Amino acid sequence: MPQSTSGTAVSRNPYRRLFTRPGTRAFTIGNLIARLPMGMFSVSAVIMIAGSRGSYALAGAVTATGLVTTAVAAPWIARLVDRHGQARIAVPATVFALLGGLALLLCVRYDAPDWTLFAAYATTATTPNIGGLSRARWAHLFRDDPDALHTANSFEQAADELCFMLGPVVAALLCTRLFPEAGTLIGGVFLLTGMLVFTAQRATEPPPSRGVPGRAPFRSPGMPPLMLGLLATGAVFGSMEVVTIAFADAHGHKAVAGPVLALQAAGSCAAGLLYGTLRPAGPPERRYLWCLTVMAALMSLPLLAARTTGSLAALAPALLLAGMATAPTMVTAMTLVQRHTPKGRLNEGMTLAVTALLGGVACGSATGGWAVEHLSPTAGFTAPAAAAGLALLIAAGGRWAAGMTRPQQRERPRGRVEPGTQAPGEA
After folding, report:
1. Whether the Cβ atoms of residue 153 and residue 331 lie closer than 8 Å to each other
2. β-bridge partners, 3
3. Scanning 96, 160, 285, 323, which has its CA 20 to 30 A from the CA of 102?
4. Where is this region: Disordered (predicted)?
5. Cα separations (Å) of 219 from 79, 133, 164, 178, 340?
6. Among 312, 335, 358, CA closest to 150
7. What is the pLDDT of residues 214-236, one digit of tens each?
8. Does domain 23-208 have CATH number 1.20.1250.20?
9. Mean pLDDT to the nearest integer, 158-165
10. What is the CATH number of domain 215-407?
């Protein structure tokens, strides 16, 4: 039976094991404080810009610009973090991003030309991927304990779901109850405070890999199909959000679209925490295929509920069940990303995974919007179901190709394994 690093048997509550290490509680608190604004900034920007300029099209275009620039800048920031350390890069990158957010606020407040909004919001793309920074710390601390790393990845996924579930709600309340700029201001305070607390925990920080460039993560064996699969998984999230809002609006219940969507995140959060208590069996590649199979099956439930009942009351539990497949899928995907990323470039590899997800969200939003407009809100639910099926096909094809090119590698763990070479997740 796997044992903790202190030599004691695995605790009945595996999450308790994570926080027995010195510094882990403090960096987790900082991580959660800094992560909450990730679900606040885009909603705050939309409310602030649309309220001032009277155009949701302009607000959407500005936030889309931020998404594109983030996709370009985030891997570069992560590469600097790997080479120079988290504290040395993450803090100044956060300050620069907050200056961009402050510039956006001032441009909106003082009615600057529209182009300044795009320029200001683009500079916020230097915000470090706090989830990736945290996962890199867990991977460093539990590099020889795959069970604990599995639990840590599950905790991080549940934290993602919780923050993206609460962030938009907090932002909407601040912007509507206080003043339109409140979400951006208070979110910035949260981000900087959390990042300072997080980076102050130097004992848990992975050592910089200066002088060890290694192979680019995207070119590592196994990574291209993983990135494509995450792109398709992101499309599931993006299309489901747009289609659900359109379906609720078509039935005269647009006001409850947010709480209904939150059920999907709640289901994923609960499933992620439960998945972290289980001991992973078999290689992560096989678990990833099973998780995608379950996700593809459960993503058909919202389509079935919408077509057979046309009721938002029936759609809500279907979304709850569908969400339960996403966290285990993401946890296993991140385990594979950690496994295939070259040594010394883990932050970059994790950030590439998040970038692929964000790109998928954007594609899924566009696809879902097209399906709603040209077909119907009900037929739009075919978009997330199809995206989930595509993710499964990509993973199956990637595993088949790997088996054809490296037929003997699958048998290697059955024989003698050199100390320190066991891959995460293959206990």
Report:
1. yes
2. 9
3. 160
4. 403-427
5. 15, 21, 30, 48, 10
6. 335
7. 566 666 667 788 888 888 988 88
8. yes
9. 79
10. 1.20.1250.20
